[in-house]
Every structure is written in structure tokens, then in C-alpha cells.
Amino acid sequence: MVLSSVLLVIGFVLLVYGADKLVESASSIALRLSIPNMVIGLTVVAFGTSAPELSVNVMAAMEGSGEMVMANVLGSNIFNVLVILGVCAFVYPLTVKSNTTWIEIPLSLLAALLVWILAGDRWLDGGESNLVSRSEGLVLISFFLVFIVYNVMVSKNPEAQAEEVPVTEMKVSSAIFWLFLGLAGLVYGGHLIVSNAIFIAQTFGLSERVIGLTIVSIGTSLPELATSLAAVRKKKVDIAIGNVVGSNIFNIFLILGLSSTIFPVVIHDGTFLDIVMNCVAGLLLFLFIFSGKGRMLERWEGITFLLIYAGYLYYLLFL
């Protein structure tokens, strides 16, 4: 048990460090290929913050642990909105720009609702169990490609304003070395997390779903938490909220899509509560943006998010 806990922590360290090195090296290579800085931020950096979830879910899918796959995606998205945005809004009210208000936040809510539809369409899958099938995984990936095209189009708009992404210049050989090392950290870290999280769940008599919704999803959301808090401290609130919303879209369209394509994800009865909670979090974010004056997330709304998450966590662990 102690060894599994230590290996779980090592897995998270390798995961976060691997994602950081992957982004750093990939951004350097993209810069050498003359890719615009804004495109690097919207694709390479955004992908990097979701790389931990992707690594864990691919490993879980390959091991046939569909319960862990869905729990990690939903748990990360719920944590992103209720905790990360809750903490950030409490530290400093978050003003939301037009594109995020009218396109990205509604798109993240659409993604949450789409999971609900796909998870409950037993009649469409032609089976006795609710699941996200391989064909539905391809549908989610198609939505992800549309989202990437949208980001590239936004980057070409001369009126678009985006924060410059700091890119470390490396030699090509060094960039390639760190790229593969980062990938290795993601793969091995993801393997350690999945195998030891499942062992810990079995030891305590907990389900993979509960472990995935708590320890695993919170651990894989650390990059988003660090990025958003750093942005808020610098009063760059657009980055804070855009990072979370973009990550939630990545998690469902890319990560769940790819995972279910590898191995169909069976939906257990208890998971529907988590699917509903994910939809509620997305809906509340959309509604809170329009409450009060201006398009912003205020401190009291951030506190509300945190209280809702505390109640949800209490239910998972004790009820």
C-alpha cells in the first residue's frame, strides 16, 4: 500500500514534468518551422495542459478500464470549472472576452451535453449496456478537429488579441531529445498512475470511478490549476478562464474520443450522476457570466462553485 502510494506520486511527477518538457520542446520546433506564436499557444500549449489526462486515459483504455477513462474526463472537467475557476474568481474577478462568452463556453457546454446523449443511447449502440462506442469516439474527434480549425481561423484575425507565449529556443537535436523524453514521462507516468490507482481503489474497497473522480482527476488537472493561478496573479484573466474552457473541450472531444476509439467505454449507473454534474457545472458557468454587470465571474460565484464541489466530493466519499 505504501509502495503504491509512492509510485502514484512518482507517476504524477513524471506526468507533469513530461507534459512541461513536451510543450517546451514542441513549441521550440514549431517556432523553427515559422508557426505563429498565437497558433502555438492555441494548439501546442493547450494540448500540453491536457496531455496528463490524455496519457492516463489512453493507458486506462488500453487496459480496458472504461470506468477510469470516463471518471478522469468528467472529474477533470468538474474540477476545472468548480475548483480552478472558483479559486481564481475568489482571488480576482474574471472578465470574459466575447469569443469565450459566445463560442467557447457554449461549445464546452455542448460537449458536456453530447456526452450525456452518447452515454445514454443504448438503442443506438444496439446493446444491453450504455456505452461510448468507437464510432461515437470518432464523432467526438471530428468535433475536436472543427475546434482546432476554429482556433486557427481566430488566430488569423488581425483584430485577435492573445498573450505572447514564451518559447525557449533550442537546438533541433536538443528539442527532439526533450520531446521524446517528455513523451516517455507521459507514458510511464500514466502507466504508474493507472495501475497504482486501481490497486489503491481495490485495497480500500472503492470503485475505480471514485478514485478517478478524485485522486486521478485532481492530479491530472494540476497543470491547468498552476497555469490559471499564475495568469490571475498577473491579472491576465482571459488566459485563466480560456485555459480552463479550452481544456474541458480538449478533454471531451479529443481525450474521450480517442479513448473510446481505442476501447469502447461502458457507462455504469453511478456515472450518470457525474455526467449530470459536469453539465450543471458548464451551465452554471454560462449563467454566471451573464449575471450582474458585464461579462464576468465574480467572487461570490467563485465561492458558490467551491461549495458545490465540496458537497459533491462529500457525496462521493461518504454517501
Automatic annotation (TrEMBL):
Keywords: Membrane, Transmembrane, Transmembrane helix
Name of one Pfam family that matches: Na_Ca_ex
Domain Sodium/calcium exchanger membrane region span(s) in chain numbering: 5-152, 175-317
Sequence intervals crossing the membrane: 69-94, 101-118, 138-154, 175-204, 210-232, 244-266, 272-290, 302-318
Record carries keyword Ion transport: no
InterPro entries per UniProt: K/Na/Ca-exchanger (IPR004481), NaCa_Exmemb (IPR004837), NCX_ion-bd_dom_sf (IPR044880)
Domain of life the protein comes from: Bacteria
Topology within the bilayer: Multi-pass membrane protein
Entry annotated with the keyword Transmembrane: yes
Predominant cellular place of this UniProt entry's protein: membrane
Gene3D superfamilies listed in its UniProt record: NCX, central ion-binding region
Localization of this protein: Membrane
NCBIfam families: calcium/sodium antiporter
Protein name: Calcium/sodium antiporter
Lineage: Bacteria, Pseudomonadati, Bacteroidota, Cytophagia, Cytophagales
